[in-house]
Amino acid sequence: MAAAYPLLLDVSERLIVIIGGGAVAARKAAGVIAAGAKRVRIIAPKLTAKMPSGVEHVAASYEAGHLKAAGLVFAATNQPDVNATIVRDARSAGVLVNRADSDETDHGDFTVPAVIRQGNLTIAVSAGGAPALAAKVRDCINATLEERWLRLADATQSLRPKIIEKIADAPRRRAALTDLASNQAADLASDEAALKSWLAERYPELKS
To answer: CA angle, 107 as apex, 80 and 51 as ends, to 5°?
Structure first.
């Protein structure tokens, strides 16, 4: 996939359908569950012992009807012809589909990046269809990721809405949001009260 539009998708209320019961399917299931998916359906005659608990198992070989009501589809069988059929069926149904054994002729609609997920911070890395390289870059980023940015990501969850609510002037609001993402804010993130006080000194609207 030479060019792709990156996005973070809310999967919490979508039915995730994964066709395949092996290790690859188990990894896909674990990934969407970690991202908040509550409804994960596995279509496969048998499941690997590595499959996460809590998934719904339909013990059957794939049929097009298995995609009914799906919000996202993963073709993760060990049969290329079946995976190709799943991709075609999903596209006909208007559902985004990922093909685990993707190739240049029939790769599905999206790829799954290498991910760092710590608290409220998510970092996704793609390397133009080279998953091993993406994983290496991810690991390099993770090794140098400072704890203060993780704390700031958590603090931002409560402070950002307050900035949006309290500061009416758009340029001033943008400035406050930029300050909230600064090195100075990250240095204060271990003490949220101190961070709030620092912001309020710069933007008196936040004192109320």
So the answer is: 60
- Domain 15-112: give its CATH code: 3.40.50.720
What does the chain come to in residues?
A: 208
| pTM for the whole structure | 0.85
Where the chain has pLDDT below 50, the residues are none
Q: Which residues of 68-89 are buried (b: 16+ CB within 10 A; e: fewer)?
A: eebbbbbbbbeeeeebbbbbeb
For residue range 64-90, list pLDDT tens digits in order. Answer: 999 999 999 999 999 999 999 999 999
How far is it, in rounded angstroms, from Cα 119 to Cα 122? Answer: 8
CA distances from 13 to 8, 40, 165 (A): 14, 10, 27
- The full set of domain ranges for the chain reads 15-112, 147-207
